[in-house]
Amino acid sequence: MEAKTPLNNRYEFVLLYDVENGNPNGDPDAGNMPRIDPETGFGIVTDVCLKRKIRNYVEIVKGGQAPYKIYVTEGIPLNTQHKQAYLNTGITMPEKSKNVPDDDLLIVRQWMCDNFYDVRAFGAVMTTGVNCGQVRGPVQLNFSRSIDPILQQEVTITRVTVTQEEVDKKTEMGRKHIVPYGLYRVEGYISANLANKEITLKNNPDKTSYYTGFSEEDLELFWDALVNMFEFDRSASRGKMSSRKLFIFKHESALGNAHAQTLFDLIKVERKDDKGVARSFSDYVVDVDRDAIPEGIQLIERL
């Protein structure tokens, strides 16, 4: 595995992104309509949705090769990924997942972290039959929420051919679900403490296992993914989605120099005109209270 620079700073971040005439995250329990908070009408995008886009970006940019392989991959069962760890470390895979010795479990878990970017970033529960342990990832995202309530619009479309043969009609109707425009905000956290935590093997105290090994190089790739992930995720159903602003709060220390909520409150997003209907990013004002940034915090803007 290539040399990596350990992560020595805690981070929080705020990403603003928007959607125009698309469905940013369909709700399967609501006929794939855009997700909303039913009490307020604000739009919601799950953390899982954004993690999928980040995974796809990393896989495209790095070609799916170690140490940037993707654990949660379409068409590959999780246990198939787990078996790779046992085969490549030479550890015998027990018949029952609960019977893996502690040191062996640390070794296969470390192999998973070393080879799969999303495991060492987001963590994973890898106890599904073929046991590779559990990892609590240093990178965590909240649900996204729209700045204003969104409109769930259902658009009827027509197709010039039919599905079934011998049907007495020439066209068929369909539906698309869109948000005419929505600006979303997601907040996240990156823990250097979880990235660098060391665990000593019980039967080999001279050898240590890092909790995930998420590094500065991994972090830079993560920032690139947040900026560019929508460029590689184009779809007629998702419309035009774009990353608009990325604010990064870098702490001087690994444990942090300020509360996360204090930093998030420094970023304010407001409509320019409360009477009109927002239909573009230019309808909003993004204000940063730079004078209130706490000591020991550096604000970095990537967009």
Break the fold down into its secondary structure elements and pairings.
Layout: E1 11-22, E2 26-27, E3 33-34, E4 42-45, H1 47-62, H2 78-89, H3 102-115, H4 117-122, E5 123-126, E6 133-136, E7 139-141, E8 144-149, E9 153-159, E10 172-190, H5 192-196, E11 198-201, E12 204-210, H6 216-228, E13 240-251, H7 260-264, E14 267-271, E15 284-288, E16 297-301
Antiparallel strand pairs: 1-10, 1-13, 2-3, 4-8, 5-6, 7-10, 8-10, 9-10, 11-12, 13-16, 14-15
Helix pairs in contact: 1-6, 2-3
Describe this structure in words.
The chain is an alpha+beta fold. It is built from seven helices and 16 strands. The strands form five sheets. Strands 1, 4, 7, 8, 9, 10, 13 and 16 form an eight-stranded antiparallel sheet that branches. The chain has a two-stranded antiparallel sheet with strand order 2-3. The model has no long low-confidence stretch (mean pLDDT 93).
Comma- or semicolon-separated keywords:
single chain; 303 residues; alpha+beta; eight-stranded antiparallel beta sheet; 7 helices; 23% helix
